[in-house]
Specification:
Four copies of one chain form a homotetramer. Helices cover 37% and strands 17% of the residues of chain A. The first copy, chain A, contains five helices and five strands. The two termini of chain A are 30 Å apart. Chains in contact: A-B, A-C, A-D, B-C, B-D, C-D. Chains A and D meet through α3 and α4 of A and α3 and α4 of D.
C-alpha cells in the first residue's frame, strides 16, 4: 500500500516546511502499519498551467501524475495565505482535475478506489476553509473522503509563529487528528483493495 | 437499507420544492435497488438554535436526529441564496455537529459507517460552494463521502426559472449525476454493512 | 451618525456573547467619535425564514429592518461553527437580501451609502471564511466595504476557550483591527453623508 | 484615472479569453468616461511563488506591481475550475498580499484609495464563490469594495459553452452588471481623488 503526500508549500524543498512537520505525525502511523509513504514538494517541479494530464514541453506534472496513479492514498498539504490554500495547491488540483477523464479498467475515473486527506498549517485561521476546498475537489473527481481526514494546525489570530516554531507537535488535537486521519486512510485503502467500488452506475461513457 | 433526505428549503412542505424534484432522480435508483427512502422537510419542524443533540422544551430536532441515527444514507438538500446553502441547511448542520460526540457501540462517532451526499438547486450559481460546505461538514463529523455525490442543477447567470420551471429534468448532467450519486451511496452503505470501519485509531475517549 | 451591530450568536441576550465582547473595542471608537451605537441580539427576535422584507404574521424581521434602514453603519457579528458563520447570521443575510430590491429616493438599492463590517469570534479557525461570506453579501446587495473591516479573534487549533475566557482583549491584533475597522467605517459614513454615491449607472428599473 | 484589468486566465494572450470578452462591457464605460484601461494577461509573465513584492531573479511580478501601484481601479478577472478562481488568480492575490505592507505617503497601506472589482466567466457555477474570495482579499489588504462590483457569467449546470461561444453578450444581467460595476468603480475612484481616506486609525507602525 502506497501513500503519496503532495506538499503544496510555496517553497521548494531547500527550505523546511511546517506542513511537512505535521505530516510526520501521520507518516509515523503509515510506517507502523507497513504503508509506504513518499513526499513530493510540488514547488520542486515545473508544473504548467492548464487542464489536461500533460501540457507538453517542459511540463513536469506527468511525473507527479504517475505517482498519483500508483498511490492508494493521496494527501494534499498546504500552507494558508489570506485564509485559503496556496496557489500551488490550486494548481495541483487543477491538474488532478485535468486527469479525471482518464478511466481505470472498469471504466470508472482513474481516481476510484483511492482515498484522500489533507494536512494544513498556517500561523492563523483558514484551515477548515482550505480543507473544505481540497476534500470537495477529491470527491468531485473520484476519490473517496473517509471521516476525519482534515488534519490541521493554526495559531491564535494575528501574526505569529507557525507549526514548528510554535511547538505545534505539543498540540494534542492536531497530532491526534493526524493519527486518526492516517488510520482511516489505511482502513479505507484496505477496504478498496479487498472490495473495489462496484462498477455500476459510475462509469464514464 | 435506509436513505434519509433532509430537504433544507426555506419553505415548508405546503409548497413544492425544486430540490425535491431533483432528488426524485436519485430516489428512483433507491427504489430500484430496494432502498427505503424518506424525505423530511426541515422547515416543517421547530428546530432550536444551539449545539447539542437536544435543546429542550419545544425543540423538534430530536425527532429528526432519531431518523438520522437510523439511516445508512443521509442526503442534505438545499436551495441557494447569494450562492450559499440556506440558513435552514446551516442550522441542520449545526445540530448534526451537536450530536457528533455521541458514540456507537465501538466508541466511534455515531455517524461512522453512514454515507452522505447532497442535492442542490438554484436558479443560478453557488452549487459547488454549497456542496463543498455540506460535504466537508459530513466528513468532519464522521460520515464518509463517496466519489461524485454532489448532485446539483443551476441555470445561467441572472434571475430566471429554477429546476422545475426550467425543465431541469432534461439536463442530462444533473440527472445523470443524481443517479451516479445514488449508486455510489448504495455501494458504500453496502460495504459498511458487510465491513464496518475498524475501530482502530478513530474512537473517542 | 448611527452604527447598528447585529450580533448573530445562537444564544439570546440572557447569555453573554464573546462576539459582543470584541465589538466593545470597536464601539469605544464609535463613542469617542460621537457615533451612536446600538446592539441587537438577533436570537432575541422571531425571524421567519424567507426572502422578502416581511414574511407576515409573527415575523419580527421588520423591526430589525427598520433599524438597518436608519443606520449608516451595519456590522454583523457571528460565532463560528465548523469554520463558518452561524445559521442566525445566514438567516439575517437572507433577510437583508430580501430587502435589496427596495430603493432609496434616487432609485438605488436602499443599502447604497451604507457601510458594512464584521466582528467574528470562535475558539478556533474559520474567521476569514465567515468574513468573506458576509462582506461579499454586503457588497452584492448594495453596501460599501471599506478596507480592513474584518475584525476577528480565534484561538489555536482544537477545543479551547473563546474570546472572553481566553483574555482575547490582550490580543493586540484583534483589538487593533477592531479600532481600525471602526475608524474606516466612520470615515466612509462621513464621506457618504457629504458626497453620496452618484445615481449614475447603478439605479434599479 | 487608470483602470488595470488583471486577467488570470490559465492561458497566455496567444489565446482568446472569455473573461476578456466580458470585461469589454465594463471597458466600454471606462472609455466613455475617459478612464484609461489596460489589460494584463498574468500568464504572459513569469510570476514567482512567494509572499513578497519581489522574489528576485527571474520574477516578473514587479512589472505588474508597478502597474497596480499606478492604477486607481484594479479588476481581477478569472475563469472557474471546480467552482473556484484559477491558480493564476490565487498567485496574483498572494503577490498583492505580499506588497500590502508597503505604505503610501500617509503611512496607510499602498492600496488605500484604490478600488477593486472582479470579472468572472465559467461554463457553469462558481462565480459568486470566486467573487467572494477575491473581493475579500481586496478589502483585507487595503482596497475599497464598492457595491455591485461582482461581474460574472456562467451557464447552466454541466459541460457546455463558455461566454463567447454561448453568446453571453446577450445576457442582460451579466452585461448590465459589468456596466454598473464600471460606473461604481469610477464613482469611488473620483471620490478618493477628491477626498482621500483620512489617515486616522488606519496607518501602519
Amino acid at each position: 500500500m502506497k501513500a503519496l503526500f503532495l506538499n503544496c508549500s510555496l517553497k521548494n524543498s531547500n527550505e523546511p516546511s511546517n506542513t511537512d512537520a505535521l505530516y510526520k505525525e501521520a507518516e509515523s502511523i503509515f510506517h507502523e502499519e507497513g504503508v509506504e509513504s513518499e513526499t513530493i514538494r510540488a514547488a520542486d517541479y515545473n508544473i504548467s498551467y492548464g487542464i489536461s494530464e500533460d501540457e507538453g514541453e517542459g511540463d513536469e506534472w506527468p511525473i507527479i501524475f504517475e505517482k498519483v496513479k500508483a498511490a492508494d492514498i493521496v494527501i494534499i498539504g498546504t500552507p494558508l495565505w489570506l485564509g485559503e490554500k496556496s496557489s500551488v495547491a490550486t494548481l495541483v488540483i487543477e491538474r488532478l482535475y485535468g486527469g479525471s477523464g482518464i478511466t481505470n479498467e472498469k471504466g470508472q475515473s482513474v481516481y476510484y478506489n483511492k482515498v484522500g486527506g489533507v494536512v494544513i498549517t498556517g500561523n492563523e485561521d483558514g484551515a477548515k476553509n482550505a480543507a473544505r476546498s481540497i476534500l470537495y475537489a477529491f470527491s468531485h473527481i473520484g476519490f473517496t473522503v473517509p471521516p476525519n481526514v482534515d488534519t490541521y494546525w493554526v495559531g491564535e489570530a494575528g501574526p505569529g509563529a507557525s507549526y514548528i516554531e510554535a511547538n505545534g507537535h505539543k498540540n494534542d488535537f492536531s497530532v491526534g487528528h493526524a493519527k486518526t486521519m492516517a488510520h482511516n486512510l489505511i482502513h479505507f485503502a484496505n477496504m478498496f483493495q479487498k472490495h473495489a467500488i462496484p462498477a455500476e452506475g459510475n462509469t464514464m461513457e
